[in-house]
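User: My instructor asked us to take a sequence, write out its structure as tokens, and then describe one feature of it. I'm not sure where to start. Here is the sequence I was given:
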Amino acid sequence: MKVLLAVDGSDYTKRMISYLGAHKDSWVAGHAFTVLHIVLPVPHRAAAFAGPEIVRAYYDDDARVVLDSVRAQLAEQGIEAELVHKVGHPADEIAAHAESGRFDLLVMGSHGVGALKNLVLGSVATKVLAKCTVPVLLVR
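Assistant: Let's start with the prediction itself. The structure tokens for your sequence are:
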């Protein structure tokens, strides 16, 4: 089974990885994992002022911070995964990547790093559920 793990570095990302590790016997063996992190785009005017090299370095640094932490957490759980980052709006990019990559399952935290953590379900998770035909497992 091809499994896409959508991560943002939040506590819910940590919970998701812990969940996978705790259920390693049923989750890890024989499955191919891809970790996806979406970096929010720099506003157009700021990007034009900074220039393409600085903007690209910002995107890479932002992704590196999250993905290095996720890589370490996955290693602790004995899970190997391909790490990918893209630039865009999280719900759109996650749903599109899940569809185009022909994943069998998308796993993500129910909430992210946004300011409205007390809602029943995070806004990105809600939008992904609305846009994506790939089955989604939300970890709370």
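For the description part of your assignment, you could build on this observation: The two ends are 22 Å apart (CA to CA). Try explaining in your own words what that tells you about the chain.
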